[in-house]
Amino acid sequence: MKFKKIYIELSDICGLDCSFCPSIKGRRGVMSLELFSKIALECSKYTKLIALHILGDPLKIKNLKDYLMIAHKLNISVEITTSGVYLDDFDFLIKSPIKQVNISLDAIMELQSQSFKKRALNRVFEFCRYKDSSNSDIFVNLRIQNRKSPQTAELKSVLKQEFNLLELDSNTRVGKKIIIVFRESFLWHTNKSDIVANTGFCYGLISHFGILSNGDVVPCCIDANGDIVLGNLNKDSLKNILYSSRVQRIINGFKNGIVVEKKCINCNYRMQFN
User: Fold this and answer.
1) Which of 64, 205, 209, 253 has the most crowded CB, counting CB atoms within 10 A?
2) Spatial separation of the C-alpha atoms in residues 274 and 269, rounded to whole Å
């Protein structure tokens, strides 16, 4: 059993309150280095890439370097997702064992203070210029949700001006391995939905799964609330969890076009794969 990537949430703390992220934050706290070391070792048997994201912002963790070094010693590539609000030490990011940095520009656009918003965007642009001039091989994705909103329109205008663009499309290259990426917006979860079909497909537990900062294993990166807890890595091994009957039912269900879990039936995100 191999996975394209495994999402590991270092913490569920980001300090922001974005409208597109309805999950309650700050409940689980920061994953200890001891637990991360155990999890990273077990994950190294199933993937070559970990993504430090579900909730929370990894750049808010002061000793992030210690976590990255554990992954580096295990020869695991690392991808991080950040709001960009906490971008500080450019040199640290460029020289660290990070393969890709995803920056959610939507999060910046929802900042209430206009001066803070401008400062955060400028910091992101400074990082892009620094990365470009340093000839670094790190990939940088500037992510935008494809929403019809004043914030999105404003952001597109700012990006065009900053990067001297006449048009702005998805996968627009604005530097060496620096790309603007549009992502379709989605509902993280739906309680009342007309999505009732138990047929369909999803990549959860097929190409990836997630681990929350308290050690709970969930089937995908969308389950930020931990509604489908498959096991906990404080108490059990990853192997036992992945080969449990519940996990196997979910995997075999998706492979055969059947949605097993009620939470998955009401998930808006999976509909894009149907």
Assistant:
1) 209
2) 10
Decide the pairing of beta strands 208-211 and 5-8: parallel
- DSSP assignments along 239-274, one per residue: HHHHTSHHHHHHHHHHHTTB--SHHHHT-SGGGGG-
Phi, psi at 217, each rounded to 5°: -100, 130
Is pTM, for the whole model, over 0.85? yes
75: left (phi over 0), alpha (psi -120 to 50) or beta: left
Strands 216-218 and 178-183 turn out to be unpaired
Report H helices in the chain.
Answer: 33-43, 64-73, 90-95, 105-109, 114-133, 150-163, 238-242, 245-255, 262-265
- Residues facing 173 on adjacent strands: 179
Query: pLDDT tens digits, residue range 13-70?
Result: 998 888 777 778 889 999 999 999 999 999 999 999 999 999 999 999 999 999 999 9
Cα dihedral value 132, 14, 211, 137, nearest 10:
0
151: left (phi over 0), alpha (psi -120 to 50) or beta: alpha
